[in-house]
Amino acid sequence: MTDAQETAADSSRRINGGTPPDAGPAEAAAPTPLLEPREGIPPVVADAAALAEVVAAFAAGTGPVAVDAERASGYRYGQRAYLVQLRREGAGSALIDPVACPDLSGLGEALSGVEWVLHAATQDLPCLREIGMVPTSLFDTELAGRLAGFPRVGLGAMVENVLGFVLEKGHSAVDWSTRPLPEPWLRYAALDVELLVDLRDALEKELERQGKLEWALEEFAAIAAAPPAEPRKDPWRRTSGMHKVRRRRQLAVVKELWETRDRIARRRDVSPGKVLGDAAIVEAALAVPANVHALAALNGFGHRVGRRQLEQWQAAVDRAKALPESALPQQGQQLTGPPPPRAWSDKDPVAAARLSAARAGVSALAERLEMPQENLISPDTVRRICWEPPVPADERTVAAALTGHGARAWQVEQVTPVLVAVLTAAPE
């Protein structure tokens, strides 16, 4: 039995209040459905007095704190949090409504210096930051699972494989802006943090057994220290189906329709896709309709779209049609790095060979280390170094280049020998 399995068995004893079945380790036995939080579903915190009690309780708790957030992706504009869940030893679980309590900076300050346990931390940290919750240190159970080589790293799969419990996941995609939140949703939300600290403890032992714990801690520190992401440049270029749009005038139509949709979605606080689908935007861009009648004949602008709405979309198309040639968007975003790999063979065959060899070497190393290639080193970093290798390409210069592209110390140590071998090999 591995350390992780022993921890899973310990968790089974503590949660079930008895001894696990004789079937053996939790991951080998039939998983146990986890149907109710240990102390029941906590009341939703929705006023200052209740929030103050939670802050005091969690400040007095011990050990790491499990943290999760629920958003209303696909229903509301943006990625704000509509429910925050926490659990800590000595404090129990808490469910907080950040609509009723939009400033949780006091809670964030009370948990300063405490390790936060999150699953897929980079997904939740932006919306937590918006309400004043920023961890000083964290443990990401999804990333830990990737580094430990688990093939499935969703929370449900990890809890089942590591701890032997089945989480009900039926409410992950519901509209969390709904008020009041139904009891089954609240039960699901509370269960999401019920075992996070147990999972963290088991994964820590497994990473230590594999000799990867220090690597994981470097990754977690980098996530906690990362500044807020910069807004995307030209987000309209990410419209699904953009590869069909070839001409600059058509690009202008996409841009005008996307920006019009975004303003409407922001004002109405709904998901942009509920205002107008990407497919309809691309359809209009390809057709560049002459008038409302022609627009109404296109897919996505049919009989369900009212005359007033059609007129606002046609006005966006007309603005794009009226732009002078000099004001039209350029095809493709300006590249700040190497060209797309598919173009390397024509532009620089030697660099293309380097990239192919580097990819093979990194893939082999990732397989030996039992982790995904992208967690071993960013594919973009490999491309940049293969396109413009340091001169001379030795251990020192390659390590410096990797560090300059944001690689962590453990990644530099592992990947440098592979890249040096590739960059110093005689071209065939």
TrEMBL record:
- What PROSITE patterns has UniProt attached to this entry? HRDC
Compositional bias of kind Polar residues: 1-10
Output the CDD domains linked to this UniProt entry. RNaseD_exo
MF terms from GO for this chain are: 3'-5' exonuclease activity; nucleic acid binding; nucleotide binding
Stored InterPro entries: 3'-5'_exonuclease_dom (IPR002562), Exo_C (IPR041605), HRDC-like_sf (IPR010997), HRDC_dom (IPR002121), HRDC_dom_sf (IPR044876), RNase_D-like (IPR051086), RNaseH-like_sf (IPR012337), RNaseH_sf (IPR036397)
User: Pfam families of this UniProt entry?
Assistant: DNA_pol_A_exo1, DNA_pol_A_exoN, HRDC
Which GO BP terms apply? nucleobase-containing compound metabolic process
What domain of life? Bacteria
User: Where in this chain does the record put each HRDC domain?
Assistant: 247-327
Q: Where is this region: Disordered?
A: 1-39
Q: Where is the composition biased (Low complexity)?
A: 18-35
Query: What protein name applies here?
Result: Ribonuclease D
